[in-house]
Structure formats: C-alpha cells, structure tokens
Amino acid sequence: MADKPTLAFFSLACCEGCQLQVLACEEKLLPILEKADIVRFREASDGDADHYDVTFVEGSIVTAHDLERIKEIRAKTDTLVALGACATIAGVNAVKNFQDPDDVAAYVYGDKKEWFPHIAARPLKAEVPVDVEIHGCPINSDEFLEVVTCLLMGKPYRQPNYPVCVDCKLAGNVCLWNKGIPCLGVVTRAGCAPLMCPSAGHKCIGCRGLVDNPNTQAAKDVMAEFGLTVDDVLREFRLFQGIYDEVAKEA
Amino acid sequence: MLPQVLKTSDLGAWVEALMAESRVAAPVLKETNVSDPTDLKFGWQYVPDPADVRLDYTVTVLGPKKFLWPPRQKLVRYNLGAGAEPEAIIDHEPHVLLGVHPCDITAIATLDAAFAKDVPDPHYLARRSDTAIIGLDCGAPCDESSFCLDMGSLYPESGFDVMLTPLGDAYFVEVATQLGEALVEAAVVRPATKQDMEAHQAFAEEKRSDFHYKLPYELKYLPEILDASYDSLVWEAIARQCFSCGSCNIACPTCYCFDVYDEVEVDLSKGCRVRRYDSCQLDPFAEVAGGENFRQERASRLRHRMFRKGKYILEQTGRVGCVGCGRCERACVAGISIKDTYVQIAGSR
Ligand code: SF4
Ligand code: SF4
Ligand code: SF4
Ligand code: SF4
Ligand code: SF4
Questions:
Q1: Residues of chain A whose C-beta is under 8 A from some C-beta in B?
Q2: What ipTM goes with this model?
Q3: pTM score
Q4: Separation of alpha carbons A118 and A63, rounded Å
Q5: Candidates 3.30.460.80, 1.10.150.320, 3.40.50.700, 3.40.50.850; correct CATH number of A6-153?
Q6: How far is ligand 3, taken at its centre, from the CA of residue B70, in Å?
Q7: How far apart are CA A48 and CA A40, in angstroms?
C-alpha cells in the first residue's frame, strides 16, 4: 500500500442502503479520511483512479454488464470487500431466480423488456475472489468501522462464525420459538447485534446468510415439530438466497 | 442473629433502603405471553423501582451471574504506538442480588471456585467481593426442566448473606453473615415467634415432599456413568438435532468460558482488550492457531458439554458443574435436555 491507501466504493444491483449505512457513521468517518483517500464514492463524491487498495462493492450481479464491471473492479483492486447481503449472498435480488426470467423482465419493464437483458442474480464471490465480506441487509455500521480498522492496521478481520442466538441470549431475550414464532437465528451468522431483530420481537429472516456448517437438518426437523411443512421451511429460507441455496442442496 | 420476620408489605421499603447504599438487582417481569396471560417471563435486572421486584418469579433466561461477570467486559485499556501504557480495568461497586434461588446460589459458589483457581481472576473476584446475596428459597419445583434436587443444589448451606423463605404474607429472614446482618438492619423486621418458626418448619417439610428425584441414580455416580458412555451412540443421536447455537452455554449459570479480543478505535490511537461469554458448542470454539479444530464434530462438542457439567468441572474445582437449573433445556430450540441425557446414559457400560 502507498502511504495513504486508496479506498473506492461501487454499487451493482441494490438499493444503495449499505452505502447509506457507511455515511451514517458520520463523524466516525473523519479519522478514516485522515488515514486514507476515498477516490470514488457515488453517494458522496466523484473521481476515479486506475488502482484501488481497498474496494467496497455493494449489490449483486444481475446483468452481463455487472459481470464486466466486477471483473474490471477486481483487476484494479488489492482487497475486495463485499458490502451487504446483495454482494455477499445475492440478497433479495435472488428472489427472481425462483421465477421465470421472462415473466420477471415483463413485470418490471413491460413491452421494453427486450432492452434489458438480465441473468440470474448472484453474489460477487460467484464470479471473482472476494477478500472480506460484510454481511447484512443493511450492513451494521459498527462492523464496517471494525473492518476498516482492521484493514488500516493490516490485520485480518475475523467475521463472526456463530449464530444470532448467541447475541440474542446475551441480551437475555426469551427465545421466539418459545412463543411459537419460527426464527432463523439458529442458523444465521451473527454480527447484527445490538440491533438484532429478535430484540425487537421480530424473527430473524437470515439476512446475514448461514453460519459455516449449519445444521439445516435440525432446522427442518424442528420446524416440522412446530407443524411447518417443507414448503413453509423453504419459504422461510428463500428470502435470502444464500440460505435457500444451502437448504435446497440438502432438501 | 436469630431469625426475623419481614412483612411482604415492608419489602418495598427495604429495597429502597438497600438501593440508597448499593446497586440492587432482582427479578422483574419482562413480558407476558399474549396467548396465555398466566405465562409470565421474568428477567434479572437492576431494580428500576422497588415496586417492580417480583419475588414470586419462577425462572429467568440469564441468571444473576451477569452482575458478577458482565457478558461483555473490558479488561485492559491501552494506547497504540509508543508507550502502550496498558491499564487493567477493575470496576466494581457495592451490589445486592435480591431473590437468588438455591440453584443460582450454588452456581455462584461454583463460579467463585472456578475464577479463584490457578491464576485468580481479578475482574470477577473484585466484583464478587463487593456483592451481597439475598437468597430466596423454593418451596416447589420451578418447572419440568429443573432437577436441582438431583444435582445437590436445592439445599445450599452457605454462599448467601441472607435467606428469605416466603410464608404467605411475610418472609422468614435468616441471617448467615455479618454483611447479611447489616443488610437486615435496614429492614423493618421483628424477631420470629414460635408460630413463625413452626410455619418455617412446615414450609421445609412441604418442600421435601414436593421435590422428586429425576435421575435414576445418585449424583456421586454421574462421573463414572459419563465415563462409561464416552463411546455411546447417544451423542451422535442427540447431536443430529443440535444447531451448535450456543444458547445452552450462554444461559448456563456455571459456564465460565470466554473469548478475548481487541476493540481498537478507528483513529488507531487506543484500544481495549475485551472478553465475552463463549460457548463450547460453537464450531470455532476449539479451533487453534493454524486452523486445526480438535472438536470439529457436533457430537463431540455436545458430549464435551455434558462431560464438563457432570465430570470435568467437578474434577477441576471440587464442585459439580451443573446445578440442575434447567436453563439450557429451556433455551434450546431443539429441546435438548441435559437431564434427559443423564437419564439416557444410565444404562451405558
Ligand atoms: S429468538 Fe431467534 S435468535 Fe433468539 S435465541 Fe431464539 S432462535 Fe436464536
Ligand atoms: S436478526 Fe437476522 S434478519 Fe435480523 S438483522 Fe440479524 S441476521 Fe438480519
Ligand atoms: S442450545 Fe440446544 S441446539 Fe443450541 S447448542 Fe445447545 S444443545 Fe445445541
Ligand atoms: S448445564 Fe443446564 S441445568 Fe445445568 S446448570 Fe447449566 S443451564 Fe442449568
Ligand atoms: S431449579 Fe430448583 S432451586 Fe432453581 S429455581 Fe428451580 S426449583 Fe428453585
């Protein structure tokens, strides 16, 4: 890295909410600006360069054009960070993968659908090597700051590899399953604390993807005990593609 | 000090007096099940208002352990770069834990032993030395998941400063330590009469008849029964349902494993070394430098927890690692029960 590392932000198909989460760090971003040059940030500034030390990319790959862009970005980048669920696990974009591609195009673009060719939604890692993943829909600003701190110190970022239940229990929550609400926290990668959904009474819908080595068999068994069918289970897992993929493999 | 009697209507005034001197934590009502209004969920909290104290509570997700050892605790602060000047963070202030059930009194004694052995843990021990424990006896089992009688935690002889026994509209107040005597001085109490003593004895008799053994063997055989079960197929079978989610450990009042990590300010000027509750059920728990994981299999992790609770902690601290509070079973989405597991392995040889 040069004296001052260069950082860039790019967006593929997404709502750009993860970049907003970055901006929401507000004054905590200032020390980063002292230590690094942000050379491209669509939501906050303009500019370009031909090499980036660290690139944050939000959004999924949904068109052939996205595919080209991510390859170009990768070629210019030392450390590629996938920012948010769309980039790490294809996020809600992947819902379209379970529908007819023509119907989907017609639904969005009507009779102009031929003008907008699209491909199945996929996360960055499906096409290029990704160095760091920041999960979540949207990302947790604290985790973003932690990743940047690690990058600035040159130490690896260890993403949480335990389920949401750990943080949920640490908060002393009564488990939603005890109230008959199926919660995906048992197989979903943690990192959203302290704002995890069960603390607000909402079930986890798995936006951070699966932990490594999840017991999806147990998930199916337990859901069955609660009177849910395989279809119900798949629907629970389907909102965020990464989770559906894993479950579908074993279903 | 001879036993005293505190009217339930005078409890609030006592709590208020205690709150003037210390931070007071007690069980309070957290939520009511909308579909079943008799299903109340309690939790340990710093008392906001003396009227919120619920000594009629049954069970809580987390025990009072969290006041002696916070789930996330800063250990050391330091500067980055030249002159790190590390400084230990040992924060403690007087605490009163009000309404601690027998299982949790026993669990705290186990934590005391665990944190005092080998290299004594100054962070825990400082908070512990500043904490008074007001126990609350159980006259009947809190629920189906508990098996405190089996695990020898239902009749603690020490580990508390004061013990309260609920006798209808009053508490029978027994003082066990000098600190306890000072606490009771802040309450409006009267010496127990002959009738009060009889009522207390009647409570004890009813308690003895209301609790039943749930394991088919005595606690002293548990370590050997576990040994004999080591290669049993039972671990594989139970682990099929286990998510490795860690809820059982996080909820357990005797678990004392933690993970240590650094939190560095984003301007890279200073940082803190922090610890957080860890769980032996999590996939990366037994991962060591170089990536080797010596308990990669779910079943071996599950077995490890059952052995820790029934054998290893006993060998290390002289106190059995499970107090039979049932929290792990209640917290488990898959319904995995340590009690049922200990029943199941009874026939192993
Ligand atoms: S509510 Fe969800 S995240 Fe919390 S303990 Fe239950 S399953 Fe886990
Ligand atoms: S609790 Fe689940 S759905 Fe909610 S933010 Fe966390 S990972 Fe996402
Ligand atoms: S709470 Fe249950 S599912 Fe989770 S790790 Fe413990 S035994 Fe396994
Ligand atoms: S192992 Fe389970 S029953 Fe035993 S003390 Fe821990 S939480 Fe309570
Ligand atoms: S486990 Fe036993 S001692 Fe603990 S609360 Fe229940 S009945 Fe009381």
A1: 28, 31-32, 34-35, 145-146, 148-149, 152-153, 161-163, 165-166, 168-170, 172-175, 177-180, 183, 185-187, 211-215, 217-219, 221-222
A2: 0.89
A3: 0.92
A4: 5
A5: 3.40.50.700
A6: 22
A7: 6
